Amino acid sequence: MKMHVLQLGPYPPPRGGVQTNMQAIQEELLENGHSSSIISITKSEVIGDEENVYHPRHPLELLKLISTLKYDILHLHIGGGVPFRVQLLILMCGLIARGKSVMTFHSGGYPGSIEGQSAGYRTFRGVAFRRFDKIIVVNKLMIGMFEKFGVKPNKIKLIFPYNLSKPKIGVVIPQKFLDFWKVHRKVLITVSLLETDYDLPQQIEVMEKVLEQYPQTGLVIIGSGSLRRNMEQLIASKSYAEHILLAGDTDRNIVLHLIEMADVLLRTTIFDGDAISIREALFLGTPVITTDNGMRPQGVHLVPMQDTAALEIAIGEELTRDKKISNSTEDGSKNIRDVIELYERVLFSGKERSIGKKPEFQPKNFS
Fold first, then answer.
1. Whole-structure pTM value
2. Mean pLDDT, to the nearest integer, of 228-254?
3. I need a surface site. Which of 125, 195, 255, 265 has the fewest CB within 10 A?
4. 64's torsion region: left (phi>0), alpha (psi -120 to 50) or beta?
């Protein structure tokens, strides 16, 4: 049987991990003969004329789309923090979804945050989370957190959010990248949103010391976000600005080639969970230097948070060794297929879902 899935979440550009996951799910659905729609719940930098992609202008329009569009499964994607307006969105999706409802909580670091540690059954978040038929989590720490929110264990499913694949043959690499590689013997690359959580100024600052030891090294920063202007100004203020390429938002098919071409991928963060770019680099055999957040995969070079001296040493060590060759035997598309299989189990389980039932109680603590 075929199904129509409505996904709600941030829609690119900019292209972050959540957006990449949503697009991979959409592609898998279409390839298997299903249908898919997307509602962007954040302000997109560019709004195109893509079919079945909606950009509501205000919350009421968003709720109208959820309650009137035809679909079998609603899949809400949440990343970052969970302020009260997001909690309301979560609750409303669970209440008015026209069919089954699934949520992926992408914030792998949330269980360790103050908000995550305050998880409890008698909270507004608990009421909202319990409305969903299934909740997909991206690491094991999140399972215990959602159980504290009162979500039954059989409603929680661990599925990693990344979809690994080799770069597509025939992709045309933009000339600006080819020119940059021509004049740099070694290239560091970072792929992230230009936001505070991703400590990009540290990478820009460390390049001064790196260039003293390795003069023909360059740094490519891929991504977009609210801090783009700040990054432009910071780079322009440096005497070594020509060695840093702020590339902006870039298509994933191109990014995969660039990660494979690069000598090291950097991922320095202040707040972070898992990272698709790290998984992609390891899959492609590119060394990774990343901030230690307690949940990084094996095979990466860990450095303490905001420790520029340690980052400098790590970069030097990676630049002086041969590039690793990927020995990964991981099935790169398994995670996305697992999501589709979860849809099928939820939709065709034969269990009826009670629509529009009242919350179990009036929560005492709206935290």
1. 0.76
2. 95
3. 195
4. alpha
